[in-house]
């Protein structure tokens, strides 16, 4: 296969110089000889050379002005230009190079030297084109890779969204199943989730337990709170739906919903990989009935031995129970419920969390049912 020949344009008002230059280069290049810069621009409308040899001292338009015009046009500014000059001054070379010329060749020139200088610059231009092509290919590959990564990210996000939707749907189904068995606490799970969110917002505003909050996935934790009463699913109907107060024996059985909830969640854990969601859920199920003074159940934990999620749920759970009606009691007003919880500061409830509750209690009222 024939090697593609470079196209050279020689611009000089001296016919002898044009003939000598063409004679030196015609064997290896396609050479256009042009007698003036004006003619050069006419020819450039039809042809794009790989290199221009441009005389400086010409009538009508000198080489400096021609080079300025070449560099001002985006279609011709990348064509390399070598000045041909009989001027032997450093100033003229500096001026030409500052305008964008790539080299100077003095006249009269030796054909062999002209060949080598042109060959050198053509080689450089070939290498520059190769590097440019490689850069363009790398850029195309980078863009393609970015598109692939973006598509993959969208797929992951869509998959995550669907898994989250499925998880939420399953949670609501389980929560509704528990509530449907307990005819007196409808909406309790959804409301306690709202109360928890308000308490956590209050914690952030007051800067309390901020190190623990920083480690939490709060959205995941709020979702998992829906399982805090999941153990009630294993409590017999005669106790769960008893219209009056429970006997001591029945209350002991009801208290088992905490440990039963933990066991149910542990059974789920056996079937799945490590789950932060289930860890939160197990804490809620097992500790939401503990009390700050150690008189709660099932483990009689006290103070900060009770995990913070359990201490938060204790307030949310009791508040909702107070403002809800039962066959054996009327619903307390918001003000009455707040008073009872504040009275439990340091006995039933974490003192700091009780202070947070006092600060956000007005939002409980406005967000109530």
**Number of alpha- plus pi-helical segments:** 15
The level-1 CATH class of the largest domain: Mainly Alpha
What is the CATH topology of the largest domain?
Hypothetical protein af1432
In CATH terms, the superfamily of the largest domain is Hypothetical protein af1432
Number of individual domains = 2
Count the E strands: 5
Low-pLDDT runs of 5+ residues are none
Calculate the terminal CA-CA distance, rounded to whole Å. 86 Å
Please compute the radius of gyration using only Cα atoms.
43 Å
Subunit arrangement of the protein: single chain
Strand content: 5-15%
Q: What does the model show?
A:
This protein has 369 residues and is of the alpha/beta class. The chain folds into 2 domains: 6-133, 3-Layer(aba) Sandwich (Rossmann fold), CATH 3.40.50; 182-366, Hypothetical protein af1432 (Orthogonal Bundle), CATH 1.10.3210. The chain contains 15 helices and 5 strands. The protein has helices at residues 15-25, 37-44, 63-72, 90-99, 111-181, 188-206, 210-215, 218-224, 237-240, 248-255, 257-271, 276-287, 308-323, 334-343, 351-366, and strands at 6-11, 29-34, 51-55, 81-85, 103-106. α12 (276-287) crosses α13 and α14 (334-343) runs antiparallel to α15. The longest helix has 71 residues, at 111-181. The protein is rod-shaped, with a radius of gyration of 43 Å.
How would you briefly describe this protein structure?
By secondary structure, the chain is of the alpha/beta class.
